[in-house]
Q: What sequence folds into this?
């Protein structure tokens, strides 16, 4: 998978995030990412068909988000997390 950084306006406000996964071959999927209903990026994921999906919701404190990270107390909130499935 390639790496894409997507900025979010008003990071202190609530936002809607969506990942839409589409099977494109017997072994591969495309994962489309949306923020607040707007398409932002796609990952072409090879060998993902038949593998478990792990959902990680966390607050990244360093690394690609910048270093050395926050200097004061920081909180992270998530609500209305839904994982669903639809079939054509």
A:
């Amino acid at each position: 998978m390639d790496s894409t950084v997507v900025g979010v306006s008003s990071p202190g406000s609530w936002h809607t995030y969506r990942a839409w996964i589409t099977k494109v071959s017997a072994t591969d999927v495309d994962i489309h990412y949306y923020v607040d209903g707007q398409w932002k990026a796609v990952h072409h994921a090879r060998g993902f068909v038949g593998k478990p999906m792990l959902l990680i919701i966390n607050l990244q404190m360093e690394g690609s988000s910048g270093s050395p990270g926050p200097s004061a107390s920081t909180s992270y909130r998530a609500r209305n997390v839904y994982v669903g499935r639809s079939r054509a």
